[in-house]
Amino acid sequence: MSDVSQPVAHPPVTDWVNDFDHTDPQWTDDPFPIWDELRAASPVVRTERFLGCYMPTTYEAVREIANDTEHFSSRRIIVRDVRPEISRNAAPPITSDPPVHKPAKQLLLPPFTPDAMKKLEPRMRAICNELIDGFIADGKVDAAARYSKYIPVQAIAHMLGIPESDSDLFINWIHMILELGIKDENMLLQAVHEMSDYFRTHIEARRSRPTDDLISYLMNAKDKEGNPLEDSHVLGSLRLLLIAGIDTTWSAIGSSLWHLARTPADRERLIAEPALIPTAVEELLRAYSPVTMAREVVKETTISGCPVKAGNMVLLSFPAANRDPKMFPDADKVVIDRRENRHAAFGLGIHRCVGSNLARMEMQVAIEEWLKRIPDFRLDPAGTVTWSQGTVRGPRQLPFLLGKAI
Amino acid sequence: MAERLKVHVDPDKCQGHARCKALAPELFELDEYGNAHEAGDGTVPPGLEDKAWLAKSNCPEIAIDVIEE
Hints:
The structure holds 2 protein chains of 2 kinds. Chain A is α+β, with helices and mostly antiparallel strands.
């Protein structure tokens, strides 16, 4: 156990261009000026931290890397302090490269099509309203802790066929993996272990009594040769669906409400024109993209003219790409009726987020139902907004006052 | 003759973002995996030209062509 390193505090960043760190408190609080500085310096920057890591800073450089599976592997998808051994079925298909990626991805796609999501929509509306019922009379609420958090958890629990009442368990595992796990290997291993045990119990129960949910769906799935998936593949994909389905959309809904709390004009427009909400959701996804992925350089190449060497990680910041003014006019402004919006919030290339249709539906429903019942709200000056660190960015504390300001 | 438009989805580029289906449901269809193809032979009925261009300009994979005939 001696080589499992203890978490080490990172020194504060003083030179962003040559020493960036996406876990630095300054990045967590307000990453946008940092990305502008990095982009102005070079399309690709590098840090010695995380055992060596590049970051593409332009939309074009991000697209090049996302589409290049020959030089960039997905076997590691989180930039961390350590690089432990790779396990084969970590979380397919997000951790898979071609040629094994495609069949693993195709297995997961049918349950997440837009039509499949429409069937889930009434349950989502009911969940949103039950959550609002719980706090609307109080006149104030932490919307991250009591609203945006529970919408995606309950949706994915519903799809997987696991109890919605286990929500806090899932949220804790995800915090341990995506935030604490960047610097603390033991924390990550413990969460993965507990999560795997949890799913093994649910898989066992379904062997004698199959159910109509995603766990049974994966247990019954066959590969191209007609063989059932290995148990480790089923477990890996279940871990992926739980991890990827929760604090991503939690963050996206939270950031959207944060924006609307601070921007009465946008709020009023969406209340007057609810048909604009899907367009606004795309713009909020662009401006406040929650998810930063990673790749590992496995073969030397150049990206946007910059040499990139094997052995380094790549911080694949879709959020920074989406703020590139060369791609998006007024990139630093939220334009809720933006007509042309090729944002990369769900990734680009073969690893496009499997749950993008689910996330979009959840965001639209969450904002619609909130605005119907709470047309007026604002940040509570007595509280503090806090943001998650690292791989997924969104508000974790979002204190609002509800109702018209007096 | 007024110009006629046709849309085409490059199946090798499409990754199933489904933006085209959301913006121009009359012009695109999704398969069982959620990947898009043009409806019928891709001919854009009169009045839907704007939607064709909108779908093209919102495809993150640049997989959609609008062809002027």
